[in-house]
TrEMBL record:
GO terms for molecular function: formylglycine-generating oxidase activity. GO terms for biological process: signal transduction. Pfam families: FGE-sulfatase (PF03781), nSTAND1 (PF20703), TIR_2 (PF13676). InterPro entries: CTDL_fold, nSTAND1, P-loop_NTPase, Sulfatase_Mod_Factor_Kinase, SUMF_dom, SUMF_sf, TIR_dom, Toll_tir_struct_dom_sf. This is Formylglycine-generating enzyme, required for sulfatase activity, contains SUMF1/FGE domain. Gene3D superfamilies: P-loop containing nucleotide triphosphate hydrolases (3.40.50.300), paralog of FGE (formylglycine-generating enzyme) (3.90.1580.10), Toll/interleukin-1 receptor homology (TIR) domain (3.40.50.10140).
Amino acid sequence: MSKIFLSHSSYNNAHALALACWLKENGWDDYFLDVDEPAKGLAPGERWQASLKHAAHRCEAVIFLISPAWRDSRWCQAEFLLAKQLGKAIFGVLVEATPLETLPKEMTAEWQLCDLVQGAKRCTYQVSHDPIVPQTEVSFADAGLTRLKIGLQRAGLDPASFPWPPHDDPKRVPYRGMKPLEAVDAAVFFGRDAAIVHGLDTLRAMQEQHIERMLVILGASGSGKSSFMRAGLWPRLMRDDLHFLPLPVIRPEHAVLNGPAGLIASLETAFNDLGQTKTRASIRTELQAPNGLMHLLNELQQLACTRISAAFSSTRESEKPVPTVVIAIDQAEELTSTEGRKESEPFLAMLAENLSLPESDQVTLERIKNRPLVIVTIRSDAYERLQTEPSLEDISPRLFDLPPISPKQYKTVIEGPATRATAAGHKLTVESKLTEQLLRDAEGADALPLLAFTLERLYVEYGSDGDLRLDEYNAMGGVRGSIEAVVEAAFAEPGRQPVVPAGKAERNALLHKAFVPWLAGVDPHTSERMRKIARWDELPPETHPLLERLIEVRLLLRDRCKLDYGMQESEAVEVVEVAHEALLRQWNMLSQWLDDDEIDLKALESVQRAASDWRKHGGTDTWLVHGGARLVAAERICARTDFNRLLGEAGSAYLTACRAKEDQLQRALKGTPEYDLKDLTQKWQKRTGLKRLFGLVGWWKLFRFRGLASPESLESTFLRWSRARASINALVLVLLIAFLTQVLIQSADWAKENDLTTEYALFKPLWVLGYTPKPELVEVPAGQFTMGCLEGRDDVAYRCGSDEKPVHEVTIPKPFLMGKHEVTFLEYDTFVWHMRQNGNKRKDGSEWLYPDDENWPDRLNRPVINVNWHDAQAYTRWLGQQTGQTCRLPTEAEWEYAARGGKATAYHWGSEFGNNNANCNNCGSDWDGDMTAPVGSFPANPYDLHDMSGNVWEWTCSGYSDELVKEIAQQCLQADSTKNRVLRGGSWYYDPNLMRASNRHNDHPVDRYYDIVFRVLCLSPIE
């Protein structure tokens, strides 16, 4: 993975090579530079756009070498906007004197610049790169390089950039076992480099775009979601304090507001860290006020702004960065548990209030930007319950899939922490044979938590002598036997305190009583094992000594928790939970207990959730969802004392209400099929002639009514008629299906042979029958306009390009018709089919082919791409023959006149680009920088033309020149001319500046690209 991307103008190749030398000297030898050797930059023949974008997706940070040439290059500006869109950490370094006020304001306002020009103390390099760069001497200011080095170190993703051991915990164990790693463990968190890069990129992009404000990290149990957020993302967000203000991570448990890791505790710590004391009592009071959480978060933002304002002392107040508050919720499945609903419901309501925007015209840009970001980790199988929470129905989350760590990364997970411990002065080596054996043993389900647990035990038991060896691992029982071995060791001396039964059978019976149903459950929808948080005083007292032993060996975790708003600290209760859900699957005895009790545990969990919903909605019959066999299974668990006790009065009341409703329903439905048959027969008897055919019943009711009618009854006659009609219908249906199936099979084979999507199997028969979809044409009126880049009108973001001048007046003498949309794949594919049917060839004599759609979805409605100028001209001629009109591509002048829509602004909707007005790079649409949008996805201009700005470049029939020549812009080139043709409109790949109506681009008439298309013009006023 290339960690650092160097972006520069070709005029500064020497500076780039010199900076690359400096990076190597300072330990950053993993970078991307386009003029370097192929391994570091572009290989010969590669397309630079695709290669740069691919490299940008892999890098962690981008260094921009700023100079007048960089400032004036639209391609360099595009790279800067792309880096912002991808959420990269950005570093600007001045390599030539450049007035800061001429740079993009986003560069100077949001990111600190390093000046490598000013300074007496210099660092000099001799560089060359034949044949691009001759031998050149380049020197940088040493002070600027020092500042850049500090910035890169703070942005570093490598665990080596974090200290170990923590300053306040010098004896901290480098292997953390089944417990999730914390922010202080970032130095020993290995195996997730790529996911961390992607996660930080996603968060920066969400912060920049101000659309989605909730990131949901989805992963299976045991995939390491908690450690990824706590030790992967969080410490890096804390370092980036200019842009993010991450609060301490929240763990809901049973009390997401008042718990030891709840919202109130998180806010209290955040205020203390920023130098302001705020008690939990005062925070609790403020939260209960209207918009209480919003005011508290705004107060934290202001404190953070005050802390960092010194770094931007020369920046105007309005342009100083405001860090975004980030709220993290770990193990968010606990928010939907029945035990914690009393606090989770108001918490989710507060969260939604701060993430959503009020339906008001008074919403300010500051309110949009100041919304917090929320990150949650949750098991994939539990996400549906969070997704359907009523409070969150207006929140659109961004999903982040976190698959299990690849086994290829296990070596770094094993050896990385030992390397960091050794570097810190605490020698620890891992025998190579041990690593090899661990890699062989760490396979299958829960491999990662079992590996972590085993490494922690190895370190605790054998690490004090400075090494971990294979013989020690074998003596411990290996990965798969590690849990069983720890359990046996925990109970090895029954007589020591706390005293436990000596007999294994008695111990196991007590453990079963404690774990099922208090500490472990089964999800009723997914059958996944779930750990549960239990109050210590609710667990059977006779099981306490056994549980104490398991707490000692870290298989169980104990904490104190306040379960209600009004509780004082002294009233907090002790709670216990399993250290990791992997224990529920990998401890064979416990797993067998859960298998044996699975049906009852599912029923218990289902009843608890349903009872909670029923009580919340006022106890109405609508929320009584248990009936039939499901109710019988639920009632069975009441016979078990332990289950009935956990169910409580609320669950028992719910089941009693369900039974009453079920009994009433059964009484009401008694005899229903017979009643229905008699009623339908009477209605049929009253009909005459053909009307009787429409009163017959189908196969389903025939099946339902079987055996109900006596042979000689009217009902039996009615059923015989119904059976006869149903048989005839079935025969006709079979024949019709057989015929259509044969047609569709042939069409599907044709679509597959031509690399077309499956829906074309339906369109080919329609084409054969004469169906010919054509572009919809709209009338563009006659008129006058000033063509080109007019200062004050078109130079809204950057200066006018030299090829956009001189401006001149153009008259369009009469109306003409123009395609309302760009030509779509369906319309162009219809043309190709006709050409192939008639044996026509392309201009170069080759066969007509269906264009490549880049495997993007919804081919039919997207603008056709990968079509050159000659193909486009051939389509317009064919269209003219089909419609009886004279059709062609528009001239450059006609195109700009139509694009402006009679408006004297850079874009047809105004002078500012705004948000989600078009599809381009960083334009706020769903397709930004990724692909084309379906035609008509954005509002039309005043002439009812869609997508004249953005989406795809459009061919014109005019030739290109370096200046805007009036005569050339109003003429069409001959087809045999090899001059480049003008392209207009910008595309999904480029930034908003290139979407202006005056912007010009060009390409050779034989070239095809994934961002070039065309639209047609008919009855042209200029002949």
